[in-house]
Amino acid sequence: MFGGSAGAWIAMGVLVTGLVGAVGAFFGEALGGNALALMGAGVAVFVAGLGSSVAVGIAGEKAAGITSEDPDKFGRLLLLQALPGTQGIYGFLVGFLAIFRMGAFSGGMSLTLEQGWQFFFACLPAALSCLISALYQARVSVAAMDIVAKHPEESGKALIMPAMVETYAVLGLLASVLLIMFAVRV
Amino acid sequence: MDEYSWASAVGRIRILEKRFLSRAELEQLAASASLESALAALRDTTYGPYIAKMRGIESYDDALRESLAAEYDLISRMAPEPMVIAAFRGRHDFHNLKVIAKNQRMGMPVQEEAFSLIGNFDPGQLKLWLQGGLAASEEKRPRKDDELSVLRETYEATAEFEQDDGGDYGPALVALRMDALIDRAYYAWFVRVMKRHGYDSLITYAEHEVDLINLRMSLRGRKQGLDAKIMASVFLPGGTIAALDLTEAYSRDEALKELFKSSPFESLAIQGIKLTAERASLTSWEKACDDALMNVIKRARLSPMGPEPAYGYVYGREIETRNLRVILSGKLSQVSAREISERLREPYV
């Protein structure tokens, strides 16, 4: 189901981001600051979610393959499958925080074009770092599943390796949170 | 390359790899007191169901063949692109083509046991199909560049050997040239299939295999006193070392060693050249060649995704079947455990 390679999915995520950015650049005046800011929040949720859904799907396929031959390994494999799913949550957090800061929950959004762009770009670090790190974390998870399959007693080590990739998703999340909280003037 | 789609198959293969017999287990089998006790030990392995179905202890070959065919079927079913496995399995059909072509073009007698029954096509059906004996409705419709059409084209190309008497070297040279023509067709087709699917890593394995075949050919050719002109028609293209370079270096030791320098087969080339110069037996060297290729293909075990683990798995099963055949036939002929052990190829695990 989740065919292709990491490069292909990253290209798709970057293309979506670029297309949304291009729509903003060409039709920004007509759309207004509110729409631009919401597009940024949408990109954070969608692109990070795209990376995570593909990544969890790939890891799940491998885990299912191993489990079909050796069902006892399910518990250990589940952790490795779940790891690349965190990026999707980070993307959602950034999107939620951005919408909150825009004032959408208090019912009055009146952002200028400049503020709209600020929100858009503030959402990008999390969106792109989560997309890329999820897909590469899936690769490490899938490789770590080989350790679980062959040496189940070394499952702890297998968990640490993909967790290292998480660092860069967390850094992207932090960058976006700091930008939204302190750099965007509302 | 669509490597993600192999994730599930690779997961299953990782567990199936545990069923391979280790070197120690093979040695234990070789040390069994008799064929019966070796077969009894095999009952507890993945070969158990096939051993149980045996009609007599001497029909172990059928059991091993059935087991290998079942493994091929299993991996083909789980592979997202079964063509990758079919292309590897096709080597058995091309082997059968050699038997058929030698019979038809050179009048060599056919021995039924010379046919491999592991291929994609039944040898009897293949023979009928090659000779146009099947009704059109029974024929598999050949698609462009599919295996059947390549087999048929290659069979038609072997017609050139009908009038060839091999000159001073006789039918042995004609057979050698025919083998080379069929091998060339197989590896060219295999590479085309892998290129179509974007699996460059599998092409690398084929390239190494071609290098090794060419190295073997060059040493056998030297031993038989064949000149470079003849060898030019025997060397296979498609390896990491060009056939033209091999032809030029063929009769010069240092040039041949230089060609294999920094390849995985460098030490094999040096050792083989030395043995040929001393006119010593190449039997243990041939085994070392198989082991060297296995060491290259073993890298497939490190790939977490993609078709390499599936390719390595079926290759590993082929070698394991060959090892078991060596052990069981050795037991039947009461060969010593040490001698059997010396003949065993490097296992996949």
Give an overview of the whole structure.
The complex is a heterodimer of chains A (186) and B (349). With 186 residues, chain A is an all-alpha fold. Chain A has a single domain (6-183), classed as lithium bound rotor ring of v- atpase (Four Helix Bundle (Hemerythrin (Met), subunit A), Up-down Bundle). Chain A has helices spanning 6-31, 33-69, 74-82, 86-102, 113-150, 155-183. In chain A, helix 2 packs antiparallel against helix 4. The longest helix of chain A is centred in the C-terminal third of the chain and has 38 residues, at 113-150. Chain A starts with 5 loop residues before the first helix and ends with a helix. Chain B folds into three domains: 8-81 and 314-349, Topoisomerase I, Chain A, domain 4 (Orthogonal Bundle), CATH 1.10.132; 98-188, no CATH class; 199-306, V-type ATP synthase subunit C fold (Up-down Bundle). The model of chain B has no long low-confidence stretch (mean pLDDT 89).
Spell out the key features of this protein.
heterodimer, A: 186 residues, mainly alpha, Four Helix Bundle (Hemerythrin (Met), subunit A), elongated, B: 349 residues, Topoisomerase I, Chain A, domain 4
Q: What separation lies between the terminal Cα atoms of chain B?
A: 27 Å
Number of helical segments with 4 or more residues of chain A:
6
Q: If you average the pLDDT of chain B, what whole number results?
A: 89
Shape, per Cα inertia axes of chain B:
globular
Radius of gyration of chain A: 19 Å
Residue share in β-strands of chain A: under 5%
Tell me, what is the CATH class of chain A? Mainly Alpha
Oligomer: heterodimer
Give a quick summary of the entry.
The complex is a heterodimer of chains A (186) and B (349). With 186 residues, chain A is an all-alpha fold.
Lay out the secondary structure.
The complex is a heterodimer of chains A (186) and B (349).
Chain A (H helix, E strand, L loop, with lengths): L5 H26 L1 H37 L4 H9 L3 H17 L10 H38 L4 H29 L3
Chain B lengths: L6 H10 L6 H8 L4 H8 L5 H5 L7 H19 L3 H25 L16 H8 L16 H11 L13 H27 L2 H25 L3 H5 L10 H7 L3 H8 L5 H12 L5 H15 L10 H25 L4 H7 L6
Helix pairs in contact in B: 5-6, 5-16, 6-9, 8-9, 9-10, 10-14, 10-15, 12-13, 13-14, 16-17
